[in-house]
Design a protein that fits this description.
alpha/beta; 5 helices; 26% helix
Length: 171
């Protein structure tokens, strides 16, 4: 793993955007580049040598009423309950839909497998899974399948300004 700094010019644009956002917000941990891709929570956990639940995976949905991106940052060992998310972010009768790769890229500026909770081109509606608070330290994507950064769940809440909610299926 190699630490990433804002001075690194040969990084993908999305990773530079995350580095700049974290730096501007005073986050103490620079992202790191993993040797292997971590497109899934399991791959990231294996590469970092941490529990699967410590991976703060980013799931993007599409709110159908206004085409807004809805970001759910959830614990890697949990599955998002779409109905719970819909109840939290959609008005009466509104629906939530799956987001395809083109929508994710256009709405967030990130590709699937590297969606960061910060540094979006357009701020999404964001929810944080309460299950992340089981851990002192979690790891989130930093704009690329090889890039991740360390933070606490409380720091995630501060960085995103998002509410913490019950958004997962019962295991």
């Amino acid at each position: 793993m190699n630490a990433i700094t804002a001075e690194t010019q040969d990084l993908p644009t999305a990773v530079r955007r995350v580095v700049q956002t974290l730096s501007a917000m005073g986050h103490p941990h620079n992202p790191v580049m993993l040797d292997d891709a971590a497109r899934t929570a399991q791959q990231a956990a294996d590469a970092l040598g941490v529990a699967l639940g410590q991976i703060a995976k980013s799931i993007i949905f599409r709110r159908k009423s206004d085409d807004a991106a809805v970001l759910v940052v959830t614990s890697g060992d949990r599955r998002v309950d779409e109905k719970k998310v819909q109840a939290l972010v959609c008005t009466e009768g509104g629906k939530l839909g799956r987001a395809d790769a083109d929508f994710v890229k256009a709405a967030t500026g990130f590709s699937i497998g590297g969606v960061s909770p910060v540094g979006h081109t357009w701020p999404p509606v964001t929810l944080i899974d309460e299950q992340l608070f089981r851990f002192d330290v979690v790891w989130a994507a930093a704009g690329h399948p090889h890039a991740v950064f360390r933070l606490s769940p409380a720091e995630l809440r501060e960085l995103t300004g998002a509410p913490v909610a019950d958004v997962t299926q019962t295991p």
